Amino acid sequence: LTAGSFYRRVAAMSYRIERHFNLLILEEGEEYVADVSATMALVRRGQGAESKGRLRICSKCLVFQPEDVSASILKFPYRYIRSIGDEDKEFGGFPVECEQFVQVATKTGAETRIVSAFTMLKSKRAVNFQVHYANTGEYLQLVKRLRDAASLKDGEAEGVVRGILAEVTADVQFDMSRLGHREVALLQSHLWVRRVKPLMEVRGMLQISDEAVYFQPHPNFSSKPVKRIPHVDVVHVFRRVYGLQANAVEIITVTGSCLYLCFEAQGQCDLVASILQSQRRKLGGEQAPAPSSGGAPGGAPSPGDAEDVPHDIRRMTALWQSGLLSNFHYLDFLNCAAGRSRNDFSQYPVFPWVLRDYKSETLSLDEPCSYRDLSKPVGALGPKRLAYFRDRMDGMGEEERFLYGTHYSTPAYVIYWLLRQMPERMLRLHNGHFDALPRLFRSVLESWETVNESSASLMELIPEFFVLPGLWLENDLGITTAEGLLADVILPRWAEGKEDFICKMRAALESEWASKHLPGWIDLIFGFKQRGEEALKADNLFHPVCYSGEAGSQAQAVSGHARSVLELQLQEFGRVPRQLFSEPHPPRLKIPKWEPSCLLTDPAHSEPWYKVVRHISGAINEDEVLSADSPSLPESRGPSAHGGASFHPSERPAPAAGAGLKPEGGSGAGVGAGSGRGAAAAGGSGVARAGASAAAVARPGGQAAAATAPQQATAASMRVLSARAVAPVVTTGRITGVACCSSNMYSVGEDGCLRVSPLGCVDDDDPTGSSTSSMRRNFRISPMPLSALAVLQTDLLAIGGHDNTVTLYSSSRGSALAKSQVHADTVTCIGTSPCKSILVSGSRDQSVRTWAYTNSSLKNEETFDDMQQPVTCVAAAGNLILAGATDGQLIAWDVRSGNPVLDRELGSSVVACALQPGGRSAVALDETGNLRLWDFRRQCESFRLSVLAGAGSGSLSAAHCFFTDFAEYVVIGGSGHGGCSSVALWDIPSQRELRMWALDDEPSGVQFLVEGSGSLFSFLSVSTAGAAHTFSHG
Question: How far is CA 205 from CA 195, 198, 255, in A?
């Protein structure tokens, strides 16, 4: 390498170095109006120095940026300008006299950075600006008008500046040459928007074509004339509340880049959101399976669709519960769904302090004492400080009461953490200065102690604490404060370096302890303890300003405050996220093992949630559902959550139920079921459309019996069962109820008859049943159709019918022991508690009744008439009664008080329901295929499976009945593709369909599932036409 070539290379490198204008040197709320090439002559004491560069004309100052990248940028605030002279036509410029000005030193490399405080030079100066290639008079007039506006009050000044901006840009047009020759513009004219970045807004023009989104900044101070995002790269479009109005959208691409746009009018935002969604739907139809577009399996909308955030929440919660989505990525998603964005520091993603041990030499993640109490907000972690907050609140007026005057997430807190990565943001927030050294982020331990002791610091963490790289912990930029060079962050003694620190912080977040307690923190930040009385009970009540503008309506703001004032307060106080859950959050059902080294070995763990979900969606779609015709079982691939698993934010999720359920009795009108755990069935019956009930399998004397697969049954053992057609249940007309005891199977139908078959006959190898027909018994019960059946003891049955009667019947005697006709319409369903102590019936008369019975008597005890439509299914356990109706209403009552303890609207007819023994949880299946579990201890929904092919990722086209162990699996009967009778097995923790058995072409599908007894079979499926199949090993 010769000396000449070396110097030429150095010269070429120097020539390529550029300094880009940084809007962060402007004041809060300041507008960048125009810029022009100019020469500046700075005169002092008769001495002048000229410099070429660009004159940036802003609403509160003039900024001169020299071409010489080593020279400082000079800023001349209008408030310090004494006079602006007239145009010098010969000189082509104008003079300015100022009392003081600001010097901004920059550090130029790959990026232009500001790493030291601004310098205020307090000396009178004369400055001459010579404008090049433009009309000096026009720019001079603009500067004078802006200086005059800057002297007005804030509200008046804003109005004048908006008018000036409109005039300046009136003739500015979007550069249509940026569109390809085949592209078609979808907007009749460009829209003026603001691109939102942290503590900064860039004004520009938006245009959308049929191929891409275009943003053209104006004035443009970057090297790129326009930002183009192809529609095929867009994976998410989120509606956002910016300031006090829902007038923003955030567009996220497959590469992770983002375009956050704020519109001048709500209608413009609605229009653009609609166009973007329309283009995504077109592309979705032309391309792609869900994985490539980030969509949900089974054709469900993809996460991020602006109009379907509730679906996203349900789906993502299911992925998290099943262990497929990490705690970090789930929290990252919840922040996004709650309106928080890395582009808006007033609504930056918030993460919890998980650990409390930052002093020890070694960190033990197996010890509970290492962790912070996630059920309490930061302000309530110290009892002494909490007592101070409570005493202060007691002296406040009712309308203004609050515990905490500052929030857990504010722009100041975000900048506190990210100072070493984003020094310009702190300079912007503090008017060109860094905060005092004691108030800067210096040590993790020191910060933890501050948030536990100080009444003015309640900050939680940010996502950067849990992902690599950890460059923000080191002062690689060489930031210098008034006290000198800023040191790197002092890490806990248990951390060997920044990577080790972040890996251990992430391991703590993903630990079993954190996974079990994280729902409590979610309740505080995104859930039902976020506001109102529940927030007060949880010591989680913030200043009223923090709750302002959540829905994007200025009308919801604190009364008496101007918009600009309130927005400024939101910047200072912070903002409570959008509420996502109104009941306790559900638990995690599977907790995958996490090693601290995971972050180092797999970079995907540090990616944002939407990239991870795309990968998960693809893996789910590749997973196979085993059909009955498959020659062999594939090896289990581990848990896999499907898009059908879901939660609704208005019916908040909750924890999973516990142990397996012993058999319950019952079958309903047009329904019947038997179960060794929790069973329910539904179907159609002549005049009255199906009801359902918890199923019964009973031993003599009413003891609950286990099926072959009984309480030891697992999802894995159920998955290997084989289905076999057996002797049909013979009837005239449709079967409306099926149940079993330890020795017999019972069925009732539209012909008014009861049929009794020994279980040995049910499993007869002769599919016609002719060889065992002599062992079957038929009894005429009523001249009208029967509609419901439950087993109380061997040969002791409760039967309901269209004659409005509940009958106590002995099949051994062949006679009715007692009858009661208190219902005013058809008895649609009957159920019993596991120990048979409670008998309950439901009717088309919209009432639910409980009964006391002996071997010879039947007496109505309690009546519940809260239902608004005909009852379709009932169940009983412990002290609870559960019932569903045709309008989707599901109610559970406490029989001791008679009061409802659960009241839900499911949206469609409830076809089946069941209660866990002891009444700890309830399960219900609706007509649209949503199967949900509620936990009564936490009073919330614990999980939801969408088991149909259309709504979720299942294989069934219709679902009529189910039985479950409430913890590991659920078996669902219905119809498959083409209308054939089918049974599906679902894994509850992983929330996916494990197997589907296609049985026969019976159009009514499987309407009844009955658990077996002894060694004959695990369970039995029956259609309303009588087609029967047993499921057993071998």
Answer: 10, 19, 23
What is the end-to-end Cα distance of the chain in Å, rounded?
80
Q: Which residues lie below 8 Å from residue 16, measured CB to CB, with a gap of 6+?
A: none
> Helix, strand or coil for residue 694?
strand
Task: List, in order, residues 6 or more apart from 641 with CB less than 8 Å away.
Answer: 318, 319, 321, 322, 324, 325, 616, 620, 990, 991, 992
Rounded-to-integer distance, Cα 819 and Cα 532, Å? 51
Q: Which has the closest alpha carbon to 504: 512, 494, 490?
A: 494
Under DSSP, is residue 380 helix (H, G, I), strand (E, B) or coil?
A: helix
Q: Are strands 1006-1011 and 672-674 parallel, antiparallel or unpaired?
A: parallel
pLDDT tens figures, 138-157: 999 999 999 999 998 877 88
In a 13 Å sphere around the CA of 966, the CA atoms on its Cβ side amount to 31
Cβ–Cβ contacts within 10 Å for residue 812, how many?
Answer: 11
Element (H, E) at 274: helix 266-286
The pTM score is 0.82
Instruction: Dig out the tokens for 952 from the structure.
Output: 């979720």
Q: Which residues contact 420 (CB under 8 A, 6 or more apart)?
A: 471, 472, 473, 474, 475, 476, 477, 479, 486, 488, 489
For the segment 292-343, what is each residue's pLDDT rounded down to a tens digit?
Answer: 333 333 333 343 444 456 678 888 998 999 999 999 999 999 999 999 999 9
CB 997 within 8 A of CB 964: no
In angstroms, what is the C-alpha Rg of the chain?
35
> What distance in Å separates the CA atoms of residue 117 and residue 962, rounded to the nearest whole number?
68
pLDDT tens column, 847-889: 999 999 998 899 999 999 999 999 999 999 989 999 999 999 9
Strand order in the sheet with 626-627: 626-627, 992-1000, 981-987, 969-975, 958-964, 678-680
Q: Is the pLDDT of residue 225 over 80?
A: yes
Residue type, 807: T
Contact call for residues 57 and 34 (beta carbons, < 8 A): yes
Cis before 469 (ω within 30): yes
Contact in structure between 106 and 19 (CB atoms under 8 Å): yes
Q: How far apart are CA 153 and CA 145, in angstroms?
A: 15
CB 418 within 8 A of CB 464: yes
> 10 Å Cβ neighbour count for 593?
9
And the tokens for 239?
């509606």
Residue 669 CB coordination number (10 Å): 41
Q: Which of 493-502, 770-779, 1011-1020 has the lowest mean pLDDT?
A: 770-779
Q: Are 289 and 620 in contact (CB under 8 A)?
A: no
d(CA 694, CA 668): 8
C-beta separation of 95 from 76 below 8 A: no
Beta strand 234-242 with 245-253 is antiparallel
Q: DSSP for 303-358, please give it.
A: TT-TT-HHHHHHHHHHHHHTTSS-HHHHHHHHHHHTT--TT-GGG---B---B---
Say if residues 493 and 446 touch (Cβ distance below 8 Å).
Answer: no
**Does residue 737 sit in helix, strand or coil?**
strand
Query: What is the full DSSP assignment across 446-470?
Result: HHHHHHHH-SS----B-GGGGSS--
Nearest Cα neighbor of 119 from 103, 95, 105 is 103
